[in-house]
Amino acid sequence: MRMLLSPFIFIIHTCLQILNLALWGGLIILFGLIKLVLPVKAIRTVLQALMHFFMFCFGKCSVFFIQLFNPVSFDIRIDGTLSKEHWYLIIANHLSYLDIILLIEFAATRIPAPKFFLKQELIWMPFVGLGAWALDMPFMRRYSRAYLQKHPERKGKDLETTRAYCEKFKTTPTTVINFVEGTRFTPEKHRMKASPFRHLLPPKAGGVAFTLAVMGDLFTNVLDISLLYPDNADHPMLAMLSGQMKRIVVDVNVLSVPDRAGDEPAADDDMRQYFQSWLNTHWTNKDARIAQLLEQ
Question: HSE of 191 in the Cβ direction (CA atoms, 13 Å)?
Fold first, then answer.
């Protein structure tokens, strides 16, 4: 019966999710514009807190609709303790745009407001782009190797962006989220990248290395989060909107901050290699953990 109803569920559920995004995203953009023109720090701080509340409302309402239209069970596992008063760096795998909704909802009652590192192209996505801009989320422009050879002056621009935004995050407890694989996992990308992992793409340490170099002395912990859709791995977003999502796993491992976090990034190559080695080790453990969760 559910399969027969899935086209109707898709239409109704999608419309409700779009309205939810439009409502809270519109409010965030409106208050972001007000914050832009008001120079008073105290007022801007209040407006920022209010916009974070709107973001959490979006996540909570979105997950409410997911539970309303899907026979879904949530399996949330947290190995360690969390606090709203701490700074965190999240390294997470990336399977679907649904990941972002789940991380926002997860953060709402557990950790400070999340800041995502987003692709520059998302600035044009309705409500999402301007909403993320209003919330001071960094947009990263990726350049191909061929482009950088022709335009060497562009090299390191992402690191400059990272530094500028990390300075903003130093004044209030913040959660910085980095999808270190750089893109969503698909079997095709897994083959093309010749990934040494069974369930993950190779991680990239550039953004993590610079974030830890600039803010490492602030971070209380690194959160290694694994997001899984065991019964709907092929197309999680479509399955969710169609009422076919059965199980969502959010596995959180609270890690210590790497030893060299907070070091001055004077030797970029040396720092990158250190954090790449650190990240590869945890990615190996993460791959084994995901395999274990899927077997269960």
Answer: 3
